[in-house]
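Hi V.,

You were right to ask for the full record rather than a summary. Here it is.
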Amino acid sequence: MTDAVPASPAPNVSPAHHLLALMFGYVQTHLLRVAARLWIADLLQDGPQPLAVLAEATSTDTSVLARVMRALTDLGLVAEPAIGQLTCQ
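Predicted structure:
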């Protein structure tokens, strides 16, 4: 196991903040799993792709995939160099 989130919170960290960090760690891991299962990195290896193309290639709903891609962008794994165009970082 990594040291990203300690098993017990530091003395100056509130229990609520510690719980929030644990929950976000789970969400980030789940996002990575979804991206891997959809082969997002492979679909973006040749450069930016429109969201609609990615949704069609992965057989996913465009609005749902948009939320996943936005979250991956927030994690710094995906970039949007132009509006609606997505690429790997």
